[in-house]
Design a protein that fits this description.
3 copies of one chain form a homotrimer. Chain A is an alpha+beta fold. Chain A has 6 helices and 14 strands. In chain A, helix 1 runs parallel beside helix 4 (about 135-145). Chains in contact: A-B, A-C, B-C.
């Protein structure tokens, strides 16, 4: 007898957009198998085929969702090839995704508990297309998990997951480090890969640090977006726990002409 | 005593966008009547007033949703005129929409079981505006159906539904046919009206077929998106069962400058 | 014992967009506290930092949602400063939002029943960031309300809410009034602040009124969008109860080059 979760939550993160029927078809498939599943859209606006873009968003989810949440993530340029579909458990939550590195950010900050391939024919649709495994493989597998199927019943346990190199901050000189911008959000805020502990490692006894991006000096770390005057740039620790560069009531992306990959220097002030 | 569905599913497909309050007002109306209804957004990004665009998306849904699903579809340039609002049952699912041809794709591939007008004053809001029947007529009708009301209690049975001409592939010469592009998706993939059986009809004994769009030769049908090198175009059978033209890791819409209506030729190779 | 609502509904209105993880994190926080909560997206496309834009959408919701609905509204350029987070009850529904005037439209048309600050540490996350109170303060407060916590237990009762000046129509000459455009929707329809009763006040004994926007004469009020020929502008009473200017099968925003703030004159014909 499977151990069915009450109100199982299934989240969806894809690069499908919402203009087409693709996401809806996945939801329909889920509801046919798991009528009580609660389906939540995370985003469908991952840039098409941008695996690291999807990996970043996925990496931000695990800290905030309840145990037993199932996250389907579909950025899948290799659909229909030999790339595997995998299910991996982190902190009691399960990620179902193509094995193309999309778990890389989550994997960096959370401990994988178990992983397996999604190969059991009983958890796929009876006909599997070559072009839409989100609907034909991942959605039904998630729905079966939501209905209480054990992870290991999805396929074969595996101890290998494809992990992409995710940039980490590195020391530069004395009491300084260099990180980079890994995501730009809707407001044009630049999110870096520099965490609280990275910043703490630069600061002696809580002294202030100064921040620069692409050679532009932003002064000391601030506390809130409102600590700059309108139109001015500032650096602060963002809500996801990473150093972030913003423009008060404006867009840092536009003002600083910055892109993903821009270098960020933090040094003791 | 109405035969209430457990967890009734109501989907929404509109040209309203999500920037305004319109979709939310429909959801609020549904929840006032059917507090247990599960409301799923299909898309609200149908091009404004594009009835065939909405019809295409609706036509892709029926194969994937559970029995008793109710699909509200609002692309309604004639709102407030004499055009009817109808409820039509196909394969155990019910479509509630303006009677302007938006069921045309669904009607081509599925059997209508019953249809009626939505005219019963008891299933409308007490005040019906001239500009927003999605909220005032279709949402409450769907919610009453979800609560177990019978289709025939929505209004009068009708044996006429407005059906628009939907292009079908036609033979051209020996072992060749001409179809056309009917939808372009978020990836820039070109979806045609040429189904598996159409392709099978061109191929003798499973021989390969070759595809051309707007006079550009795409070579034989491939199996997966990854069967072309990055930036190259290919044709394959897409996940919706129709011949589709894609560019590996790119946009066929951009590379081929193609639009809805572009001619697609399939011939024996 | 708290008085838990069955199927509590929590709606979300933000300027976060849907490309990032922010909205999903709020949903995860809600579900950890209130697993049965029904979370509905209203819109996440409020223009960044546009408080009046969010206020307009919020003002359209209260008439359509069930009692006990909780509306979280996050357009919060002052996050992390001394601006308060408040919970205000209108018509049995509760708004949780920064106290920056975002309730201004709702406040104009509905009676506030009670309001309090959201300051109780037990209804916040254990760590509150300076940059994301939607996730750390408003989402958990809403979830606790959904679980049956009383409004007054969120913090301290308050009899002051920040209210922004919302333009109201004013008389100009005899049997004429001047209002303005307060919102432009996805279709390019121009929504004014002129309500049914404002129009009735101009018309003697139900006589027709004529409308002009930015000096362009639109003729008498029409009944439906279809009362103009394709491409022509018209004025009519929109589904939200306000005078609206539209272009048949087109965009009034484009045709009339109109913007929020454009003056609208209604006079007896």
């Amino acid at each position: 007898m499977p151990n069915k979760t009450k109100n199982p939550v299934i989240t969806l993160t894809t690069d499908f957009g919402l203009q087409d029927h693709y996401v809806a078809c996945m939801k329909g498939v889920i509801l046919q198998i798991a009528p009580d599943a609660r389906i939540l859209d995370v985003t469908h606006e991952i840039e098409p085929h941008n695996i690291l873009g999807g990996a970043f968003v996925l990496g931000q989810l695990l800290d905030w969702f309840p145990p037993d949440t199932i996250h389907i993530v579909v950025v899948d340029p290799g659909v229909g090839t030999s790339r595997r579909v995998i299910a991996a458990r982190y902190d009691g939550q399960t990620i179902i995704a193509p094995d193309n590195g999309i778990v890389s950010f989550a994997h960096q900050t959370h401990q994988v508990e178990a992983a397996c391939t999604v190969t059991n024919p009983r958890v796929r649709l009876s006909t599997v297309s070559n072009t839409f495994h989100g609907r034909d493989v991942m959605a039904p597998a998630a729905a079966h998990l939501a209905m209480g199927l054990a992870l290991v019943d999805l396929g074969q346990l595996t101890d290998h997951l494809e992990i992409l190199a995710v940039a980490r901050p590195k020391p530069v000189g004395v009491r300084a480090l260099e990180g980079e911008i890994v995501h730009i959000d809707r407001f044009g805020n630049l999110l870096s890969n520099i965490g609280r502990q990275d910043v703490a490692g630069v600061s002696t006894g809580g002294r202030q640090v100064a921040v620069a991006v692409d050679g532009v000096d932003l002064g000391p770390l601030q506390q809130t977006y409102a600590d700059a005057t309108a139109g001015d740039a500032l650096a602060l620790m963002g809500g996801s726990g990473f150093l972030e560069i913003a423009v008060r009531l404006g867009s840092a992306r536009e003002k600083l002409s910055a892109a993903v990959g821009a270098k960020v220097i933090v040094r003791e002030n």
